[in-house]
Amino acid sequence: MTESANPASYVSCRRVGDGHQHHFFGYYNKSNWDRTNRLIAGQRTPAMDQYLTPDAKATVGYFDTLDGDRFHALGETGAWNWQMGSQLQWLDGAPGRQLVYNDRTGDSAARYPGFGAVVVDVDTLARRVLPMPVYVAAPSSQWALSVDYRRLYVTHETIGYSETGGPFALPLAPADDGIWRMDLATGAAALLVSYAGLKAFHPRKSMEKAIHWVSHIEVNPASSRILFLHRWTERVKDETCFLHRLITMNPDGSEMRLLECSDHPLPQLAADFDPGAVGTFDYEKSEYQISHPLWQDDSHIIVWGPHAGEIHYHLYHDIEGGAVEVIGREVLVENGHMSFSPVSTRWLLSDTYPDDQTHERFLFLFDMHTGARRNLGSFYATPDLSKENRCDLHPRWSRDGRQVCIDSVHEGQRQMYVLDVSAIVGA
Length: 427
Prior knowledge:
Blueprint: E1 13-15, E2 22-24, E3 39-45, E4 58-64, E5 70-77, E6 89-90, E7 98-104, E8 115-121, E9 127-130, E10 136-137, E11 143-146, H1 149-155, E12 178-183, E13 189-194, H2 195-200, E14 211-219, E15 226-233, E16 243-249, E17 257-261, E18 291-295, E19 300-307, E20 310-317, E21 324-327, E22 339-340, E23 347-351, E24 360-367, E25 373-380, E26 396-397, E27 403-408, E28 415-420, H3 422-425
Antiparallel strand pairs: 1-28, 2-3, 3-4, 4-5, 6-7, 7-8, 8-9, 10-11, 11-12, 12-13, 14-15, 15-16, 16-17, 18-19, 19-20, 20-21, 22-23, 23-24, 24-25, 26-27, 27-28
C-alpha cells in the first residue's frame, strides 16, 4: 500500500494465501465468502496479465481461512476474463455449499456453441454441466440469467469471451437473442427480452444503426425483479461512444420499466476521430456513463450515472418517474463499484479508478446516515496493464459485513486481499 497523508485512517489489510501464482475473484456484485465466512472463492492463474485466447485457462477454487488459507482447486475453466472471472458465485439458496462458474463445455449443440456452466458441490465434488453460461444466479438459486459472451466480446471485449476463428459479425438487434432465464435444476431456458424488443422499447434515433447488448444484470434479494443496462453503439472500439439505459423487469420479462437514459450527441463519430487517443479510464469517467447498478433492497437501486443534468451516485426507486436521490453529492464524485453491507444499508462500500497521475485507487466506506466518507486504503495500479487486463479493486463484503475483499496488483502480483472494517461498522 502507498503512503497516505493520514495513514492512521487506514485499516489492516492482508493478502489471502501465500502469493504462489496469481489469484482474483472478479466482479464487485457478489460475495466471494461462503455462508459461514470461512471459504473465499477465487480463480488462480499462472500470469498476472496474459492476453486471453480461447485456450487460456484459469483454475477455479477457494481458500480455506481456517486452514492457513490453503487453496482448494475445484476445476479448470476456459470461459473467463479479467474483469468478471468465470462469473464464479455461491448458490446461496441451494443445499450445502455449491458454486457455479462458466466454462467451455465443447457442446456444439448448445445455444451458444461451446459455452455452458458448471455447478460443483465443494464438499462432495459432485458436478453437473448446464447448457448455457450464467451471468448472475438469483438469490433463490432456482434460476440464473444468461447472455451471449461471444456477443460481449465484440461489443465490449473486456467482459466477453473469445472464440476460435472469431470475433464474427453479429446481427445488430436480433429477435432470437437477448437475456435468457435458465432453470438451475433442469437447464431449461426461456428468452425474457430480445435485442429487437429492447430496440423497440422507448426507441431512440441513435439505436437505428447501432449494435445492441446488455450488461450489469442483477437480481434483487427477493428474486422478484431484475435490473440491467441496455447499451448500444455504432463504434464498438470506442467506449466513449457507448449509449446507456437502466431498465428493470420481472423474472418473466414482464413489467419492463425505463429508469434512466443517457442518450447524447457523439462527436466521436466524426471520420477523423482517433479512438487510440482515448485513455484507458476515460470511458469510466465519462459524464454520460451509467454504470455499476446494484440493488440496495427489493425496490431501490444505487448507480453511478447522470440524472437531471448532473452525474452522481444516484438512488432510484424502481418506479418509472419515481424519486431519484443524489448520494454523497460532495464526497462521492467519481465512478466506482458500489455495494451495500449485507447487514446494514447504512454502509456503502466502493472504490475509485486509478488517478491519472499517481495511479492510485482508493477503497472507502460511505456512511448513509452521516454523509461521511472513510478511506480504507490506497492501492497502486501499474499503468502497464491494458483496458482488457486491468485489475479494478472490485470490493466485496463478507457475509457478516465485517470484512471486505478486493483484487489488487499493488505488490506486483494479482492477488486477493482482506480488510477488516469491523471497528468502523461496529462503532
